[in-house]
Amino acid sequence: MRIRKAVAFTGPSNSGKTTLIEKIARELIPKNRVAIVKNDPKDKAVFDVEGKDSWKFFQTGAEVVVTSPTRTTYFSHRHKEIEEIIRMIDDFDFLLVEGLKTLPLPRIAIFRSEIDESYFPYSEAIAIDESVDPSQYKIPQSIDLLNLNDTRQILEWIENHAKAV
Description:
By secondary structure, the chain is α/β, with parallel strands linked by helices. 20% of the residues are buried. The protein has helices spanning 17-28, 53-59, 82-89, 151-161; strands spanning 5-10, 34-38, 64-67, 72-75, 94-98, 107-111, 125-128, 144-147, 163-164.
């Protein structure tokens, strides 16, 4: 039985979470199956086009699946807990989660310019670039310090710390 691993990324808006997750996914994908879950706490994401069939179906209140030769898209009106999402996706080696700060997964907090210390209780590592001087902060010894621009270092941390799910 293969081991599926999960890790989460958190940080303030525009800190580079999406960019880092993209880099990590691109590095992992040639040899692994990767799934990504993104939290949208303000419900701002738009996934369908008004007037199209799938949009019309979703407006009925139904659960909608659109399938094609190259992808399958699932539109749901129901909130799903991470365990349910893992069961739905099922076929992955690495699950990368953006957001969901209190989810019990090993977490890398990402910062540029300044560190928000309120993330420390939810983080096992922080990734920063040269715009941050870590000596200006009281970073707990239990939190690993990573170079945001060193994808290999971050991948190594993920390999060693991601949680089996």
